[in-house]
Amino acid sequence: MNNLNQAITNKKERVHLLNVNNRLEHIFITIINNTDIFQNSENKIFGLMIFNLCQDSLTAIRIGNYNLVNHYKNRIKGIQDKINENQLTRFGVNAIIYPMLSYYDYKIERFSEAEHNMIITIDSLKQLSEVLEENVLPPLFEQYKNLALIYFKNNEPQKVFTILDYLLNDFKSNEKQNEIFNNFNLIGKGKNTKKLFNNIIDEILLKINLFDKESYKTNFNKVVDLLYFSKLFSEEKQLIEDFLNSKLKFEDSSKIVEANLPPIIEGTFLNSIKYYTKEQKDLINDYFTETYNIAL
């Protein structure tokens, strides 16, 4: 129990520090403030106006007021026409507007349009990588996650796993993306790289459970399989293998807690263990609830 207690103490501190260090400026504000993208004060003001209208649009979409959404979209189009665009400005404006347009189409179940708009968002962010550098990674991964959710809602689960496989194994194969990825580690955010993946995986698993409860276990194991073959989770490979083979035991509890796994996967691993005493089980339950605000 001493090893498990110490592992829990260490993990709580690590999660707290990651949460504190991960309070990044909103990516759209970063885009608007970048003088390579918005090169004069007038364009910057127009960019802020578009950003605020997109935020209002998202609120209207969430409450289902689509007439108001269309009103905001027309206002956004009017402001767009006033911007003196160069190529980077166009990519910046697209990166702000198209996530909202994609979400709108997603909510009204126009999935082809939602996919199209999300791909424009992703391509625009990639085009901005030269000037945004490592700051582009969190929003880029976020939009890949959103694209995966569009595919899952449209009953295309294989495309979801293709995206996860790409992010976990092939994303860095592009020379520029690899450079940005390495820079993200060099500036002291290396652990946040794993946190990005963990957040994406957790959100996808939550949606999988929401959309298709009957196939959740099968889809969960597919996600775990992808982690098993990913270099990013090489340190957790033995734990993943033992889970897939139903070989995890109480003595592995501290290793699971110390590992850097997505919380839903960590919790599932811990739940698969047969505990010897109620005290052991209560300790794990309390740790998980206090650390992640999720009950096992």
Structure, described:
- 76% of the residues lie in helices and 0% in strands.
- It has 296 residues and is mainly α.
- Helix 8 (137-153) runs parallel beside helix 10 (175-211) and helix 9 runs parallel beside helix 11 (216-228).
- The longest helix has 37 residues, at 175-211.
- It is elongated, with a radius of gyration of 21 Å.
- The two termini are 19 Å apart.
- The relative contact order is 0.09.
- The model is unreliable at 20-24 and 186-190 (pLDDT under 50).
Give the H and E element order: HHHHHHHHHHHHHHH
**What is the radius of gyration computed over CA atoms, rounded to a whole number of angstroms?**
21 Å
- Find the structural class using helix and strand composition: mainly alpha
Helix content: over 70%
Write down the overall geometry: elongated
Beta fraction:
under 5%
Distance between the termini: 19 Å
Task: Outline the low-pLDDT stretches.
Answer: 20-24, 186-190
Main beta-sheet annotation: none
Tell me the total number of β-strands: 0
Q: State the helix count.
A: 15
What is the average of the pLDDT values?
85
